[in-house]
Target: LPS assembly lipoprotein LptE
Amino acid sequence: MTATRLFTMLRWLTLLAALFAGGCSYSPVIQHGPLAGANGVNVVLFANKSYRAGVEAVLAQEMINEFNFRTGGKVLPGDRADYELSGVVLSYNSVPVSYTAADVIREYNAILSVQATLHDQKSHRVVWKGDVTEQQVYPVNANIALQQDAEEAAIEKISRRISERIWQKLGERF
Model:
């Protein structure tokens, strides 16, 4: 009798586990905000008003990656998207922040400021507009190639964080 009861109990537990597991599936993160019911967003290359060439391309790639991840792949070309995300790289600076005992620069702080705007392409109205600034410290290296690689990595991290913050700010309003 105990073996039968144990077998019945295991069957019920298996059935319950199957029911709970069946409810788990992938769904896009987007649940509220302007992009929740939208057909997609077109991420336009930001204009670059800074003195650092190429920052806008890194930022655009990170924006596309973030919005693809958050919307479940709804980054679309301009003719198929309901919204357009555009903006301007306002400034990029790299300033020394720490020194060695011999008064030699040890680390730089990269600072990137952007202004982003989300437009509804049908009504041509501005849905959201805001400024975002992020920074990242990176080490100095005597080898100029490694120094440039460190700065590029810092710009990539900053761009990723700016993309995340813009996504968060889009959802805050709604």
Q: What stands out?
A: Residues 144-172 form the longest helix (29 residues). DSSP finds three helices and five strands in the chain.
